[in-house]
Amino acid sequence: MAKRSDFLFSKESSHFFLPWICALMVFIATLVLAGGIATHNSLKLWQKSVAESLTVQIPTYNEEGKPREELVYRDIENALMLLRTTPGVLGAIVLNDDQMQDLMTPWLGSDAVVSQLPLPKLIDVSVDAAHPPVLEQLKADLAASVPDAVLDSHRLWLGDLVRFANALLTLIGLILILLFATVAITVVYTTNASLSIQEHILSLVHMLGAQDLYITNRYAWHNFKVALTGSLIGFVLALPIMFGISIFLKSVSGQILQSSLTSVQWCYLVLVPASVALLTFLTTFKTVWKFLRRFL
Amino acid sequence: MPNNENLSPFIAEFNGVSLRYNKGPEILKDINFSLSPGSFHFMTGESGAGKTSLLSLLYLHLEPTKGRVRLLGQAIDTMSRSTKAQVRRQIGVVFQDYHLLNHLNAFDNVALPLRLAGEKETEIKKHVSELLAWVGLEKQIKSYPEELSGGEQQRIAIARAVIHKPTLLLADEPTGNVDDAMAKRLMYLFLELNKLGTTVVVATHNVGLVKNFHFPQLHLADGHLKIIPAADSYSDITNKLFKREEK
Asked: DSSP E strands: which ranges in chain A?
């Protein structure tokens, strides 16, 4: 005997496509959203580093390309003395060779021998983000006591990077909207195709006294289950790809790209298949409700 | 709340009802009649006279282009979609072309009205099995419509129309594909329901049926309806046919 919920659906229905379309859309949307979240995280990290740190560069070679030797250590000491007495500066440390190596690895690779390169000595300055030092004043003071020192607030290159990241986030948002719109259009199409194939069933059930809400709910829940199954398949398939990309990014970018997600951000990702299923439910509901209006 | 002005004591009441499809000619013209609760009528008329259209108005499949139809006491033009569905649940229809669902077996086709009404599966099983046995289809309970003959499909359609003991039963040529013995048996089923209070309208070409069962006729000709009383219904029709042939 057929189950109570079966009588509205014959085998001819075109629901075959719906789970696979949902799976594909959720697969793409999950990866795109994960990329967006990683970009957002990196953006936050970069903005935080702009707000909370400065770098003072002490050149190790003079303009003629000769080593400055002990002048470097004098400049470092003077710079540290000035920085540690500047309001808004929480601390200042000179990066050692290992730290320099870590810093250069994303750009030069792990095999680069930092000590053999004409790199300046770097003083990492921690700044009170709430009460930062006045940069122009600090620049002037530094120029007076350590004329060769260069104050780098990272704002220039990070500003470009932040603008790029924001543009990328906008693009990702648009792609997600397009993906969801595609799901909605697909649901309308497949539901209408299915309704047309099964019009004789609907017409009969309507004539036997089925309420519009009853028929509409049956269809909407049926499509919801189909879409949820497909969406979960798409989501599960996206996970190993996400982990793969995350591991790859960590290996090539070090700390520059923040590809690990927080638990809340994982919830956002889980919302992708749930949203596609919910969108399918609502779109089906509206489509069937409108279709039934052709019957008296 | 229903508007008192729209309430009617009749199961069905037609006042000045006309029907046309799109911009075509009027199929039904100025139809006026009423069906009292518990009445039994035959609907007669030549092919194309408008019997199926009139039945369609009675089971809320069509709306009149003119006039007013009241069903189960309420005017259909003021009914909400939800009320229309409730009214339809009280109407049993035997369609001329059966309208069985091919993906459901005989049992599930007959069970459809009960399932839509939310009946318990144990009750459904009991009632459907009994009724299918009554119409001689106990062995075909799991057969699909495509595996059944025209007559068997017709009996399933009839069983589905009566399973929920409707207030109004409309049957469009319900005996067209069965032998005389089965036709009589099915008519007795309709009579049993009628005795229990169901109002019955049977559209038929079967002169024998009309002759054997003396009920008033709703006779359609050229889109007009004439009510022929029970006593002389058969002779009236034959006289008319005879006179037409003479001309």
From this structure: 53-58, 89-94, 121-127, 150-152
